[in-house]
# Entry
Amino acid sequence: EFRRVLFRSATVFISGIIIILTRRIVQPIGKMQRALNTVTGGDFNCKLSFDSNDEIGRMGKALNTLADSLHSKAKLAGLIAEGDISQDVELVTDADKLGLALQRMTDNLKVFISEIRDVSSQVEAGSENMAKASLVLSEGSGRFSKGRRGFPGRD
# Structure
């Protein structure tokens, strides 16, 4: 009888420990899954709070870092879309593909805008030269027609 009670007590105790450990693992993983679904949907404002420094806590912190990085890159892309290419792109690491692509995009846009300004200046200068030439031709045409009035068949 004592063994049966001891066995049942041990079973209940071990079951309790298993349930507690399972909850400590499953609940944070469920939170991370929901957060990842949110990030996958394009909302990078999710934040998880984990007090532990175990694997689960480090995974949660890594997920927060990912969401923060994507949020800042999305914000930067929005500024670029609005025409602001003055922002610097901060890379998370040297392997930050999205950050590198945004850097190349802003650099290329800066070069493109500079080239457009150069061409615009050239067009403006050419336009001024055309206006001056037109004025000279107009003045010359007026002198020519005044000078031809004395010829027979004119007047």
Notes: The chain has three helices and no strands. The chain has a mean pLDDT of 87. The longest helix spans residues 97-147.
